[in-house]
Amino acid sequence: MKAITNVSGVDGTGKALRNTTILIKDGRFTSIEETASIPNGYEVIDATGKYFTPGLIDVHTHLGVHEEGIGKEGHDFNETSAAVTPQVRAIDGINPKDQGFADARRAGVTTVQVMPGSANVIGGEMCVLKTTGTIADEMVIRNPSGLKAATGENPKRFHGDKGRMPTTRMGVAAILREQLIAAQTYMEEHRTGKTARNLGLEHIGKVLNKEIPLRVHAHRADDIVTVLRLKREFDIDLTIEHCTEGHQIAPFIAKHDISVSVGPTMTPRSKIELADKGWNTLLALADASVPFSITTDHPVIAIEHLMTSAILAVKYGLPEEEALKAITLHAAKHLGVDDRVGSAEVGKDADFVLWDGNPFDLRNKVLQTYINGELV
Hints:
Blueprint: E1 2-10, E2 16-25, E3 28-33, E4 43-46, E5 51-54, E6 56-61, H1 99-106, E7 109-114, E8 122-130, H2 136-139, E9 140-150, H3 153-160, H4 169-191, H5 199-208, E10 214-218, H6 221-234, E11 238-242, H7 250-254, E12 259-262, H8 280-287, E13 292-294, H9 306-315, H10 320-325, H11 329-335, E14 352-355, E15 366-371, E16 374-375
Helix pairs in contact: 4-5, 4-6
């Protein structure tokens, strides 16, 4: 049980905190009041001179499945033996000892989504977890949290270069349709006992049943439009991951009731799909009222630069409050875990960060990161 006194900062919902007392019990926020008595037995932490924010959230990472600094042995994020691998699960490849988790904690990142890579048209299930722990199952707060799919250059390159489908964008879309139709057929036949279990089709069935969204890697505007076409055809929930050219078609995206993950915008333009990359994407999506989050796509950009990315978004015109929500509350909503994380509110997990000043000043740093009320 902890009492954080003299708290100043923000709660993630847009509300400023000033001289606030925050009580924490059983890993959750139990009181957030400007005047509050502290019960006996509480450890008191004086936050005078510090700046409080909720724990940061990166919605699109490969932490633990693409380990840093060890080369091929740490590359467990793309099962490239086939273009369609919905049967694989990111949780089975996560190594909690990956250095990236420690880097995340030091940077105030308390929750991440870990997903397969984008080599395959369908790459497998993903999960959301806290960034502290030694056993992946005990770190998880949502599993599965989505099914990974990818359009564009990556699946074409990984599989087309090996002489197998897809070799074109038409082929990518055709494979997605075939797999969704196959899962529809499988679900009906399995209900009537006419077919044996098929793990991959079961996972796609979760998308069709709207248990989880299809989270689709799409950079170019035409690929985004194709993905939204599939959403209409199959009536599924989905998110757009990266959305690099989203600014070109933001009003069209807004018609489809989806959220998007934008980034990693700090990268160079390493391929054709990134030619029109820029921070203006966030501004256009905001103007069109499309919910968005900011991501590093760790380790494409190191996870310690999630806050740096938000700072740069502000530099190029995004309001500071919206930039913070893009890595806290809106990120939690993107992942479907906003009942637990994303803001400092009574009943939610006590994940928060104490900084030595406003984190939107790049000179300021994390002093302490807490997850479930514990200093990590």
